[in-house]
Each structure stands twice: as C-alpha cells, then as structure tokens.
Fold this protein.
Amino acid sequence: MVTVCAYCHTIIRPASEPDEPVNHGICEPCHTHFLALLGIDLNRYLDLLDAPVVLVDEEARVLSANHLAQESFHIPAGMVPSPRLCGDVFECENADRPEGCGRTVPCLSCAIRNTVMETHRTGDPVDGRPAVLTRRLRSSGAGLDLRISARREGRVVLLRIEHAGTGRTWPDRTV
C-alpha cells in the first residue's frame, strides 16, 4: 500500500506493486510543524529538527540553539539563555575585535549576519546560501565552509547551518 502525507502529499512509503491503493498519513516534517502549532515548548521543538538550527532575532542575537547546533559548534548547553550576537556564539574571529560582532569591516560581507537581516527584513526565505565562518579558536585560520538557510517566523528567524557538501536541505515548508 502506498502511504502519502495528507498535508503536503509527500510519498511516505512508495508502492511495492503497481496499482496499489493509497493510504494517508503524516510525514515527519508536517508532524513537527503541527506540534509547533500546538504550542510545544520551543527548545523541544527545535530539537525535533534534523539539522543545526538557531533562533535569531532582528539584531542577529541568538535566542536559542537546538542540540545539534550546540554539538556542531561546541556551544555548551545553557550558553544561550541570554541573547548573544551570532559572531559571539559561533566564535567568529571578528567578534573579538574592539568593535565587536557586526561592527567591523569584514562584518559588512558576513553571509550569516546578512542572511539573518535580509530574511528578517523581507520575510523571504533563503535556501542553501554559501557562507564561510572563520572561528577564532581554529589554529589554521581556514574558514569553515557552510550552507545556511533561513525562514522568518513572526519576529524571529530560524537559521539552519550545515557544513557544505552534506547534501541536507531545508524542508520545503516554513516550520
């Protein structure tokens, strides 16, 4: 029997034989989305997402990070209870300058900051934009190649950050 998501029409389980009857269910992304609509705790909701995701406000301050973001960027659990700028949370080498995150010349071309600000301002989603993060703790000075995606939800932006080349993509719907 073919199983199709009743909400987004994604095939959950393909047919094993031609002309099988169609059954309806709910795919994982839709399930996660509807849990959020029901008022599930924000941190629990973010942890349901299958990639590193941070919740960012209009000034590029990280409000929350899911467990995958904490692991990927070595953010100690509980480090983000008070909003901190993206560069501080991701340990960008420019955030340590006297001007701080968002106020140095290199910040003008920061793909992470610009994507958050653009998505917050326009509401337009961004998918798989290349970004380079040079962290102050990396001895080689080489940048970390990333792909970032963003969605605005109300007054905040969900920012998905992945290592380039992983092949993972942002879900087709706003979460």
In short: Residues 127 and 149 are 4 Å apart (CA to CA). The chain has two domains: 1-40, 41-163. The beta strands are 2-5, 11-13, 22-25, 53-56, 61-65, 84-85, 126-133, 144-153, 156-163. Residues 111-122 form the longest helix (12 residues).
